[in-house]
Each structure stands twice: as structure tokens, then as C-alpha cells.
Design brief:
With 536 residues, the protein is an alpha/beta fold. The protein has 19 helices and 19 strands.
């Protein structure tokens, strides 16, 4: 209770500072704005100290989250079904509650959408994040409870700014506007009891009005449905604004940046927005796009910070700009478990709490959250780079990797390889996907890549050879299968014509927002669909 009161007081003080900030904003010089930014930064200090505790108290913090979640939901229909009141600790929890997929919880979620209360979570749930994932077209509606909204998603946004200011004490973050490129669909009613939309749209719809004072574009623009019209409207409304921060998915933000440059006739984004200092990115790996951003924003003052904010919750953020790994956020009313990647899909896989994970191994994430998800398999895979504090990289999706020949090629391998080979050859890759190609007559196979280049390499054969060699360097399983071509022959590349991937997304109704290209697949569904578009 006291912690809640303290948080409310801190939040109220932040509101006061924001109000003072806006009063002075229009009539202050740069020195005054710097003082205000420094003043606001002081409010983040207590939280920075709390995050520092992750290195010592991770296990205790995590088990506290579990205890609180079980206590809060003990009188829900779900809590009564599994007798939450009698659960004494993690061993009971693990033994009693089965692993869940969306299909398992869908009947409960449907009832919640239709207005029933106290089903998976005691709060009234009026908002649902609509997600189709990256491997099928079926929509999922994930509950966005008031608790997950404020205590996880928005807390993650607060912590992102907190860590950024800690790492960059000379920042002028609050002296300019932040541009957020969010959801591709406006929130829409499911019925009179509930609304849904992309997570980013739901977050923007419920955002505190004070935050709207320091961001662009207007809500009516950012929530527009039609993607091309929205990009044009964003450019028209913001290109004359002093913008110093960007937030969004790298691939789609790149589309916006190029539209801004085309509108202004500028070569660099810093010509349009000279105070640009940070891009908060997430959703997909930044590696294939890093060099393109540096070319368009040639500034030593520019920073890049990755976040991991999924429809199910906010899970990680980049706390060290010198590392590409993310700090696992362990006090967001989320309890984490992990399944070794080689056991995914088994009837009784090994499930490990955070305290039992190891560095360097790939795991599928399992989460229990204040959004009413219990031992829910999110579909993402991670690999820990350090323990205490727990840091990780997102290695892919449980359905978004290639293991047709025992090579276990993960998305992070592919992204790093593409990035390295582009640097070596001077090529620029716009989009790519890969899938196995079976050669039954030879009892072997290879990986077939479809790549849409923004800038072609001098030699496609050399690019393919370098990509193959780099993948072997990054993945020992791939290297073993390529040894003397025992199982895998050299990969082949098919060049996609310009706009192929964009057209595929358009036909799927997935332009903009959080929608992503499936990088790797264990079957040929996506690459065949793309091939048909490419042949038109």
C-alpha cells in the first residue's frame, strides 16, 4: 500500500513538472530548457536505484511477482479452478497449472470480451490487443487489463526514458517533441463491452493526456487506418516540428524517414530535425537496418535503444548502449518460465524458472502476467547473455526458424549474417525471408533465400557465398550440416523485385504498425506466396 502511495506521489510530481515545463516551453531559451530537462530527470532517480537491485535480488523479486499474481486472482474462476489459495510456492504452481496456448484460453477470453467478469483476472477488461503474429492470419485478442497497462506497458515506457537519461546525462530529451509511429488500425468495438486494436493503438488511446503534450503526431493521425494516407499525414504534420526522438518498428520507421526526406528534399534526417538524438525501436531486429539509419542520420549525438514490448507485456529494454542485449524487467507483475528450444512442442517439456536458466542456450518464453495469462507460451525465443542481472537477446520465434536438416538456424543468426555481409559487400537489404528447399533426388537440401535489395551487391554469387560462410561462423549446427555438404548444399538466393514484400503485406492486410515479415520458416508457405507475387 505504501509503495502504491509513493508511486502515486511520484507520478503527481511528474505531472506538476510537465505542467510547469509546458508553461515555460514556448518562452524559454535553450539554457532554461536544459534546466527543466535536468529537473525532470531527477524524478527518475528512485526508479533507477530500484532497477539496479535486479543484479542482487532477481530470484526474490520474481517469486514476489508470482505470489502477488496468485493472491490477486485466487477468487477468479481460473483461480478457483486450480485452487490458488492452497498453492504454497513455485513447485505447486508448476505442478498444478498446465502450459497454455491461445487456443487453450480462447474460450475464457471470448467470455471476457462478451462482458463476463472475474474469469482470468478480477478487473473489468475493456481493452484487447489484436495480434495475428507472424506465422498465420488468425487474430488473437489478448486482454489488456488496467494492471498490465499501467504496471507493465506504461511502466516499461517510463523505465525506458529513465535508463536513457541515466546513460545520457547531457540529453535534451524534454526540450523537443517525440514522434511515435504506432498502430496501423484504430481501436474498434468488439461489442458494447469491449474494444480492440494493435497494442500500440491501445496504448495511445489510453495514454495520459500530459504525455500527448510532448509527442507528435495528433492522435487522430496516428490512429488512421489506411497506411499510405497515414504516412503522408504524419509527414505533413510533423516535418516543420522540432523532433528529437523516434519510437517504432525499424522497417516502418525507415519508410517514414524516407517520406520525410522526399518531402523536404533533404539528404539527411538531421537536416530536417537537427536536434534528433534517439530512436527507441523494437518489434524486429535492428541489425539489418543499423547501417541504413546511420547513413540517413549521420550524427555522433544519435543513440539507438531497443525495447521488447509485445502484445502480452513489456519484457525487456537495452540498459547498456555498448551491448545489444536487453535487461529482463522482472518487477512488472510478470513471472517468467522457459522451455529449452529442443523440447518445444513436446507433451511434457522441461520448464525452468528464471533462477535455473543458463547463458548461451535458446529458450521459449512462458509468462504469467497481470493481464490474466497463466503459464502462457508467447511464441518468442530468447538466449541469455548474462545472469544477475539477467540479460538476453531475442533469438526468434518458436515457429520462425529453420530446422529441416538439424541445423537449428535462428532469426538472430540470420539477421547478424545479413548485416555482416552487407557491410563487407556494400549491399543494402530491404527485406528477406528464407526456407528449406528439399532435393529428394539427392536426399539433401539447401536453404533458399528471397532477398529484396535496396542496393545490389557487386556480385550476387559472392554475396551468397559470404552469407553461407558467415552463417557457419555464427551457428555450429549449420556448420556441421554444411561440412562436406553431408546434409546441406550451399544456399541459393532469389532476388525479389522491388515492392514484393510490401505487396505481400498489403494483400495480408498487414501494412504498418507492428506487422513483420516472417524471416525464417520451416516450410515453404511464405516463400512460395512471395514467389508468385515476384513473378507477376
Amino acid at each position: 500500500f505504501l509503495q502504491s502511495v509513493d508511486n502515486q506521489i511520484r507520478y503527481f510530481r511528474l505531472q506538476q513538472i510537465y505542467t510547469i515545463y509546458r508553461i515555460f516551453a514556448c518562452n524559454s531559451n535553450n539554457r532554461s530548457m536544459d534546466i527543466l530537462t535536468n529537473t525532470i530527470s531527477l524524478l527518475f532517480r528512485p526508479r533507477q536505484k530500484e532497477i539496479a537491485r535486479f543484479a542482487q535480488d532477481a530470484d526474490a523479486i520474481q517469486h514476489k511477482q508470482l505470489k502477488s499474481l496468485l493472491s490477486t486472482a485466487r477468487n477468479t474462476e481460473w483461480g478457483l479452478k486450480y485452487d490458488y489459495k492452497s498453492i504454497q510456492g513455485y513447485a505447486d504452481f508448476c505442478e498444478r497449472i498446465p502450459l497454455q496456448t491461445y487456443d487453450d484460453i480462447k474460450p475464457y477470453v471470448t467470455r471476457m470480451i462478451n462482458g463476463e467478469r472475474n474469469i482470468l483476472w478480477p478487473s473489468v477488461v475493456r481493452w484487447y490487443a489484436k495480434s495475428s503474429g507472424t506465422t498465420n492470419d488468425k487474430s488473437k485478442f489478448l486482454p489488456v487489463t488496467p494492471e498490465i497497462l499501467k504496471g507493465c506497458h506504461y511502466k516499461g515506457g517510463f523505465d525506458t526514458v529513465s535508463i536513457y537519461l541515466q546513460n545520457n546525462p547531457d540529453s535534451h530529451f524534454f526540450a523537443s517533441k517525440g514522434l511515435i509511429l504506432g498502430g496501423s488500425h484504430s481501436p474498434s468495438p468488439l461489442n458494447r463491452n469491449a474494444h480492440c486494436g494493435d497494442l500500440s493503438a491501445v496504448l495511445l488511446q489510453n495514454l495520459n493526456p500530459l504525455v500527448n503534450l510532448i509527442r507528435v503526431p495528433d492522435k487522430k493521425i496516428i490512429l488512421m487506418d489506411e497506411w499510405e494516407s497515414k504516412i503522408k499525414a504524419i509527414v505533413e504534420s510533423t516535418w516543420k516540428t522540432d523532433v528529437n526522438s523516434l519510437s517504432g518498428v525499424p522497417s516502418w520507421m525507415l519508410v517514414l524517414i524516407k517520406a520525410v526526406l522526399q518531402k523536404t528534399g533533404s539528404e539527411y534526417l538531421t537536416d530536417v530535425w537537427p536536434n534528433m538524438e534517439v530512436f527507441f525501436h523494437g518489434g524486429i531486429s535492428f541489425e539489418p537496418y543499423r547501417d541504413q539509419y546511420k547513413a540517413l542520420i549521420p550524427s555522433d549525438r544519435m543513440h539507438y535503444m531497443e525495447t521488447y514490448n509485445a502484445s502480452e507485456g513489456f519484457f525487456g529494454l537495452q540498459d547498456n548502449p555498448e551491448e545489444h542485449s536487453l535487461l529482463l524487467m522482472i518487477d512488472y507483475s510478470v513471472f517468467y518460465e522457459f522451455i529449452p528450444i529442443n523440447e518445444v512442442g513436446e507433451e511434457h517439456p522441461t520448464v525452468l524458472p528464471l533462477e535455473a536458466v543458463e547463458v548461451g542456450k535458446n529458450y521459449a518464453m512462458v509468462i504469467t502476467t497481470s493481464g490474466g495469462l497463466w503459464r502462457y507460451q508467447i511464441g518468442d525465443t530468447v538466449r541469455f547473455t548474462s545472469l544477475y542481472p539477467h540479460k538476453f537477446v531475442i533469438s526468434g520465434r518458436t515457429k520462425n526458424f529453420i530446422n529441416a536438416f538439424g541445423e537449428e538456424l535462428m532469426v538472430d543468426n540470420a539477421d547478424k549474417a545479413i548485416s555482416r555481409v552487407c557491410r563487407q559487400t556494400g549491399a543494402k537489404v530491404k527485406e528477406y525471408t528464407a526456407a528449406p528447399l528439399f532435393m529428394l533426388d539427392k536426399a539433401k537440401g539447401r536453404h533458399q533465400w528471397m532477398i529484396e535489395f535496396e542496393k545490389m551487391p557487386p556480385s550476387l554469387d559472392d554475396f551468397a557465398s559470404l552469407l553461407d560462410k558467415t552463417l557457419q561462423q555464427l551457428n555450429s549446427d549449420y556448420e556441421a550440416k554444411r561440412y562436406k555438404e553431408i546434409s546441406l548444399q550451399p544456399l541459393e538466393i532469389r532476388v525479389a523485385r522491388e515492392g514484393t514484400f510490401y505487396e505481400w503485406l498489403r494483400r495480408k492486410g498487414k501494412l504498418g504498425g507492428q506487422h513483420k515479415i516472417p524471416r525464417l520458416s520451416n516450410d515453404r508457405t511464405f516463400i512460395e506466396e512471395l514467389g508468385k507475387i515476384c513473378d507477376l
